[in-house]
């Protein structure tokens, strides 16, 4: 009942602020939606006449809590879809929310770390940024290093739990009553978002993610992150060396002397793709509030509360889909969708390739500032609905981050070509992972896995052995490689072939 109450309350709040179906868009609503908009304004209050639609929505989302604010942060990155003014009105949700008092932050630090603030920090200043779940303070360690101390908001865990219950209920209701929305799997989508937000409430996990991605980023140099100060890390506190550069959320950041906007946007796109494709782990919250920039093209990331991960099959599918679009090989893109199970087998790959061509050819070869991303997204949605393509919950963070990163890159450089930026990273992955040597290594690994399964089969009790056989019958390619001698020889050759 509490979740139902929060959903109703959220709807009433949006209606009171005229942020649900704003009056400024009345001329665009179809008749049925126009009636709903008129009804919703019966609950409108004085606040519905104050500010633009984006400002009213920002106020509403801030009152609704952390999960709603996350949605606003995502919307604020897509000026190319929702308009520059709307995006700027939502931008304050990234890091300019109202902070909580510094003395509360100090108490949280001492309770979490089990030591006084003075024993670790020479100075501990007021908050410099405040977001939905936490705020950051500038401080100085006893050894003189300048650091940022992130402290969770008091009571935020309860707010997230309440928001999670309401979101889970909303997903269940949408899935039950909206047939058209079922292919988007709203319940699974809600569960994915809820889980990611819950993980953000333990800053020890964020510190570990930042440390892991620092090593990943160092291999390519497209992006970097400040070092973690582990003695200042606890469940509700994280200490990290100060990020060099200017926050990208600062309007003056893109006017820094010597800044190369095109190279900066390229580095952002390539950093994300290199993390996802080459390493299977990526920063999944790359909005402007979490990015710092410096001339000529340096990008520094902070806030690793949301980390995305991809398994080897998903990385291969992603790379092949991107490569197919880069090469305009729509037949291959379509085939990969069927191989991955993204499109049900009953449909025609050739027809799906034709549909992909209808969208892709409108994008390639045209300046970015002439492409309406909202129109492209609408067309993609219509096409995927036509072919019963369902949302994959395990790819939600990837899709959300791709949308955010592209939006930020377009804000940095309005003429930015995401496909040209992606080309070197995707090409490198394809040459490495789909080379004869890579294929031989995968074949050898399948052979070794088959040998392990054979050992399990021989050692297992009869009933378990039957289950193993049934499982392996679904993968005949693995049994083709059975044989210790063959597997050993192939593996020996594969490890010596040039990459």
Blueprint (SSEs and pairs):
Elements: H1 2-16, H2 31-40, H3 53-64, H4 66-76, H5 79-82, H6 84-90, H7 102-113, H8 117-120, E1 121-130, E2 134-141, E3 146-152, H9 156-177, H10 186-199, H11 203-218, E4 237-241, E5 246-247, H12 261-279, E6 281-283, E7 291-294, E8 298-301, E9 307-309, H13 312-326, H14 330-340, H15 349-360, H16 373-386, H17 396-412, H18 418-433, H19 436-459, H20 462-473, H21 476-480, H22 484-494
Antiparallel strand pairs: 1-2, 2-3, 3-4, 5-7, 6-9, 7-8
Helix pairs in contact: 1-9, 3-4, 3-6, 4-6, 9-10, 12-17, 12-18, 13-14, 13-18, 14-15, 15-16, 19-20, 19-22
Q: What attributes does this structure have?
A:
4 domains; 499 residues; alpha+beta; disordered C terminus; globular; 57% helix
What is the number of strand segments?
9
Largest sheet: 4 strands, antiparallel
Tell me the Rg in angstroms. 25 Å
Unreliable segments of 5+ consecutive residues = 468-499
């Amino acid at each position: 009942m509490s979740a139902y109450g929060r959903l109703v309350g959220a709807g009433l709040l949006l209606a009171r602020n005229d942020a649900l179906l704003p009056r400024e868009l009345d001329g665009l609503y179809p008749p049925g939606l126009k009636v709903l908009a008129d009804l919703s304004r019966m609950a409108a209050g004085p606040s519905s006449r104050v500010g633009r639609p984006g400002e009213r929505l920002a106020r509403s989302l801030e009152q609704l809590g952390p999960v709603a604010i996350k949605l606003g942060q995502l919307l604020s990155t897509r000026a190319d879809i929702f308009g520059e003014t709307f995006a700027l009105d939502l931008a304050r949700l990234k890091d300019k929310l109202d902070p909580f008092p510094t003395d509360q932050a100090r108490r949280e630090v001492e309770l979490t770390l089990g030591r006084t603030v003075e024993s670790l920090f020479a100075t501990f200043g007021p908050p410099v940024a405040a977001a939905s779940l936490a705020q950051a303070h500038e401080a100085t360690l006893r050894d003189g290093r300048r650091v940022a101390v992130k402290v969770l908001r008091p009571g935020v865990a309860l707010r997230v739990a309440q928001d999670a219950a309401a979101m889970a209920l909303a997903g269940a209701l949408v899935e039950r009553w909206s047939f058209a929305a079922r292919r988007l799997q709203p319940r699974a989508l809600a569960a994915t978002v809820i889980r990611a937000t819950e993980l953000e409430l333990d800053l020890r996990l964020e510190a570990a993610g930042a440390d892991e991605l620092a090593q990943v980023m160092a291999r390519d140099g497209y992006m970097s992150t400040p070092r973690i100060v582990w003695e200042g890390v606890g469940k509700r506190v994280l200490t990290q060396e100060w990020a060099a550069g200017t926050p990208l959320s600062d309007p003056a950041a893109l006017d820094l002397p010597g800044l190369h906007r095109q190279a900066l946007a390229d580095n952002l796109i390539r950093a994300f793709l290199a993390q996802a494709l080459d390493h299977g782990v990526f920063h999944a919250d790359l909005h402007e509030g979490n990015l710092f920039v410096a001339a000529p093209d340096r990008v520094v990331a902070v806030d690793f509360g949301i980390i995305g991960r991809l398994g080897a099959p998903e990385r291969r599918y992603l790379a092949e889909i991107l490569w197919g679009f880069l090469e305009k090989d729509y037949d291959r893109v379509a085939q990969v969708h069927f191989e991955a199970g993204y499109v049900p087998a009953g449909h025609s790959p050739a027809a799906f390739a034709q549909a992909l061509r209808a969208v892709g050819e409108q994008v390639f070869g045209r300046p970015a500032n002439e492409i309406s991303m909202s129109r492209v997204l609408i067309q993609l949605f219509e096409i995927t609905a036509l072919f019963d393509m369902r949302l994959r919950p395990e790819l939600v963070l990837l899709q959300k981050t791709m949308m955010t990163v592209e939006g930020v890159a377009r804000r940095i450089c309005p003429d930015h070509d995401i496909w040209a930026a992606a080309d070197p990273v995707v090409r490198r992955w394809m040459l490495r992972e789909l080379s004869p040597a890579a294929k031989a290594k995968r074949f050898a690994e399948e052979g070794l896995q088959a040998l392990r399964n054979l050992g399990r089969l021989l050692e297992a009790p009869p009933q378990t052995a039957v289950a193993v056989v049934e499982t392996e019958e679904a993968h005949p390619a693995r049994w083709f490689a059975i044989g210790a001698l063959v597997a050993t020889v192939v593996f020996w050759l594969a490890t010596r072939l040039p990459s």
